[in-house]
Amino acid sequence: MITIGILKEPSFESRVSMLSVEVAALIKSGNTVWVENGAGARSFCSDAEYAAIGAVVKSRAEILAAADIILSINSEDIPSSLNGKVLIGVYQPLFNSPLMADWSHQGLTVLSLDMLPRITRAQSMDVLSSQANIAGYKAVVLAASIYPHYFPMMMTAAGSVAPAKVMIIGAGVAGLQAIATARRLGAVVEVFDTRPAAKEEVMSLGGRFIEVEGAADVSKAGGYAVEQTDAFQQKQKDMIAAHIKKTDILITTAQIRGKKAPVLVTREMIAAMKPGSLIIDLASATGGNTEVTKDNATIQSGGVTVIGNSNLASTLPADASKLYGKNIANFLSLLVNDKGDMAINLQDEIIKATCVTSAEKAISSSTITLIHHEHIA
Fold first, then answer.
1. Which DSSP letter does residue 256 get?
2. How far is C-alpha 194 from the chain's CA centre?
3. What is the pLDDT of residues 191-246, one digit of tens each?
4. Buried b (16+ CB within 10 A) or exposed e, 317-353
5. What is the pLDDT of residues 13-48, one digit of tens each?
6. Residues of the chain with CATH 3.40.50.720
7. Which stretches within the chain are classed as H helix?
8. What single string gives the DSSP state of each residue in 311-343?
């Protein structure tokens, strides 16, 4: 059977790859599970809880040396000298090609779940969607805690208060959850997305859709934005500028797969916002959707607070870890044959898409080959 190791994440990450409930299911299936000391502490799952369901608590060195499959979320602090091991996590290979090259040359098999194809069979394994859903919710809750006014309209004996005006750029998973959460809190919500198909979803949640005609086809982009023509980009900026000056809270989520996030909000647009307004940029890790965004930082631009945070899911570690672990457990089912042995089938559409490097091949993802051929021979 297979020995699966769960690593403790770096200090900036509060999640863990798998909580005890999913670990118990793996053990029941006949697998051995090792958990690094303190791996689940920040997600409120103790070493004792893991041990109680049959997992073995070990040191990091022991897990790296002897586990067949190693689970993590981030790529930090994972040595490259793990010949023959299988790593599963969210490693952003399109932005980390030198690391992928190093792992490839060392004979690791690396499966990165941010490369999952957007197909029905992969939905139960989709870590990006499960974590983006949390990030969209938390972005609104965070905004409500910082914004110096009410979210809902209030009518009291002392007078009336107008509802907050929230604008959301990007109606993907994070954006849709942000719409739903902001509406539940009583805000007026406007939404911009380049995909005409998003209009119906936005309106069904009570949002007002800002439409700009002439967008490039995004039907095959897997839920991501795509690069647009210069003419469309100018119309887009003009439309955003017209709405943003009336916005109290702006939440941006737009990303282009494998490339820097599109800059949709200029310094001039931010300068036109009212003092006390707030921007939360969920695309900050890939450059951000505003000209002033700094990743993992809160800055002031005039009288506007700009928060760059692409890891808001980590601030709800208990539920984020629960969902991430379920995604991982579903993915692991593809790697085990009928005898309970590990079998990585590169002909499987999901495995082929996520397998960035293989112990048998230098690289198995055509996307990585095309974009980063110079790094991986």
1. B
2. 20
3. 999 888 899 999 999 999 998 876 665 555 555 556 677 787 788 889 999 999 99
4. bebbbbbbbbbbbebbebbbeeeeebebeeeeebbeb
5. 999 999 999 999 999 999 999 999 999 999 999 999
6. 3-108+318-372, 129-315
7. 20-28, 47-52, 60-66, 97-105, 127-146, 173-184, 198-204, 230-244, 267-271, 317-332, 349-354, 366-372
8. -GGGGSHHHHHHHHHHHHHHHHGGGB-TTS-B-
- Token representation of residue 301: 């631009």
- Report pTM: 0.90
Tell me how far apart the alpha carbons of residues 138 and 140 are, in angstroms, rounded to a whole number: 5
- The Cβ of residue 28 has, within 10 Å, a number of other Cβ atoms equal to 10
Q: What is the CATH number of domain 129-315?
A: 3.40.50.720
Task: State the Cα–Cα distance between residues 294 and 96, nearest whole angstrom.
Answer: 19
Strand, helix or coil for residue 148: coil
Report, as residue numbers or ranges, the catalytic residues.
Answer: 118, 123, 126, 129, 224
> Phi first, then psi: what are they for 53, rounded to 5°?
-100, 10
Q: Name the residue with tokens 């397998």.
A: 355
Which of 134, 129, 286 minimizes the C-alpha distance to 223?
129
Classify residue 80 as left (phi > 0), alpha (psi -120 to 50) or beta.
alpha
The CATH number of domain 3-108+318-372 is 3.40.50.720: yes
- What's the token pair of residue 180? 């739903």
Give the tokens for residue 170: 């990007």
| Cβ neighbours around 20 below 10 Å, total | 23
Q: Give how far the C-alpha of residue 280 lies from the chain's centroid of Cα atoms, to the nearest Å.
A: 15
Structure confidence at residue 376 as a pLDDT band (50, 70, 90): very low
Would the CA dihedral through 103, 108, 114, 117 be positive or negative? positive
Tokens of 310: 């692409």
The one-letter code for the residue type at 349 is: E
CA-wise closest residue to 356 among 109, 107, 131, 128 = 109
